Amino acid sequence: MKLEFKYTNNLLDFLLKIEKYKTVLDYLFLPTREKQKLMYEAKLKKTHFSTSIEGNVLSYNQVEKESGHIYLNMN
Predict the structure, then answer these.
(1) pTM beyond 0.70
(2) Buried b (16+ CB within 10 A) or exposed e, 16-37
């Protein structure tokens, strides 16, 4: 199945904004623990949304539980 799309001005604006924010985030200093927490949450969300596209019906919380990882909040 081949997907087709067009590069519209609106799409290009969004892509440029994403790239701009990615660059800003690359230079943003975050404490190690906060960075690890954000990366862990991003990985869970990526897994959840990716598998839901494929038809998986697990909720975000179920994906987190099934991942076998428990993030310990050490505040």
Answers:
(1) no
(2) eeeeeeeeeeeeeeeeeeeeeb
